[in-house]
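seq/struct pair 1
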Amino acid sequence: METDLIGLIAASIRRERERAGLSMTELAKRAGIAKSTLSQLESGAGNPSVETLWAIGAALGVPFSRLVDPPRPNVRIIRFGEGPVMHSEQATYSATLLASCPPGARRDVYRIDAQPGDSRLSDPHMPGTTEHVVLGSGRALVGPVEEPVEVGPGDYVSYPGDAPHIFTALAPDTSAVMVVEHI
């Protein structure tokens, strides 16, 4: 993970924790992580996984994107291979934040790149969250853990993001665009 992104994440976690009025001990407890891990992240010494950042965001009641998105200029372009990328510890899966919710809007946009192998299992996000996925290449098994569907290039699927869900690449170089809506 790039040093600039780690610094941004450190400042964002500290800002959101202080905004919520939580101590490091309380936030670590709510997120299910060690206080030492949280301390390292806030000091910019850690290298968080996507799972850790989702847990911290959920514990703070903020979207994941608020922890990784830099301030935005008026016109923004993210070239392929650029942007803040988070890697999974569970699978060969990475999520690149393309756009987060501006004030008043409630959606984040990600590009997903995944390889066959272990599935990316996601814990439930904030209540009322819906995920929308459009597969760009490859094949994938996507959706609620209890009833995922197989999708191919150009297929669209939406499902509750506030229930356990899965993304499993079934073909090499699977890519998708995912929009996460927050109510």
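seq/struct pair 2
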Amino acid sequence: MTMVMKVENKDPVKVDNFSKIEKSLRSLKSYGPCSYAILENDDGSYIQVAGGRVTCVLELREKKQDRQLRAYLSVPRVCYTGEQTLMFGAGQVKMQPDEILFIDDVVAAFKAFFEKTPFPLNIKWREMSHIFAAPLLP
């Protein structure tokens, strides 16, 4: 199985080995030239992450179901409350404390997506499609 991996400021590459994907993910930082990555399969579905290390936001696009999902944890790993804003190379994203994942969570989710196996049980998914269905302002 071959998928396409896109990392900020790097050329897209076809990947057929998870070790290359993991290496790219672990090199991400929420600042600097490599702050997001996307892994896309042949049907147009993808998993994407913004940030790095201990400040990651993970989303899943299910193309066939036309759904956009954001990962969250049942028990937040951070001690603060209230909405946060992550600044990264593609812009910014607002997130709740339970939506902040560590890179180990991200690697496990990307591996499940790559291998087409169930996602780790600690990762839950929140529907976000309504954000993309909203009309754009003029």
